[in-house]
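quick one: iron/sulfur cluster bound model?
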Amino acid sequence: MHNSVKDFLETLFSENALNRLPDTHGSGRIFDSPLIGVSGGADPIFQRYKEVVGPEHLTPYEIWSQSNPEMSGTESGSLRVLSIIFPYTNRIREASKTAKTMPAEVYSVGRNFANEFMGDVLKKSVSFFQKKGYNAMAGMQSPVFQILTKEEPLQLYSVWSERHIAFAAGLGTFSLHEGFISEVGCNIRVTSVITDAPLEISPRKSDDPYANCLFYTTGKCKKCVERCPADALSDKGHDKLKCYLYLKTIEQEMKPRLSGLLKPHQRVVNGERNTSFPLGCAFCQFNVPCTSKIPVKERDEDNRD
Ligand code: SF4
Ligand code: SF4
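yep, here:
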């Protein structure tokens, strides 16, 4: 089944009109072909996320049964979580290399349009499994999904963290810039589908949550720190408040000239529904060793020569 899911998603990414920039920005693809990985619903790592992310973080069985009470009889061990990585195209990555204080417009428009495409991929993936006779749901589209905030220091986290789901599925690791470094780099988006279809579980190459980041493996690099215009990154990690305030500055500056083009995005924060027009920032993900690959792997291969 792994191959049929992969083929289905590759076709969707190449043919879906929502994976396209508008004509004003060249009409090319926003995302290249996806990467996929699968974790098992009973993996103990999901209990660990209640300590690492927050006690409100849900296990696959919890989000499954709370979203669909009629399916609460499903065994957690028979659930599978399909994690899907969306890599931004080289065109967007190249255009963003030289951006210094405001993101390249093509990235911001792609970042804004991406949410609608990702939502469509989730709906169509759920329906793909249902047509094959299985049950399926998307955590991000569940009525119980929400984003929570904690003050001092500011923390923003969801009850279903897609980066943690991707780690569980062996797709990569966390990093100094608090992104997620996968085989196709850190300049990506991530989402997931839960199903009772018997997908093969992907092995995790390492349980080290930072194995793919040069800073955590060699003590060097920190290119993402140099690239951040908001001084939001340091050896100590990511200052979410500075990052959030810089995102707001970008929105204030860019929204007026893109206003006829942008798509609204709705989400529930602390129990209240709000609408935003996300434009992204991500200087820390462009023109750095981990933009498009796992830099640690490249270093290890060089050392073998
Ligand atoms: S730029 Fe370097 S230090 Fe920063 S996340 Fe990437 S590999 Fe880690
Ligand atoms: S998203 Fe922007 S402000 Fe936030 S850490 Fe990255 S470069 Fe800095």
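The radius of gyration is 19 Å.
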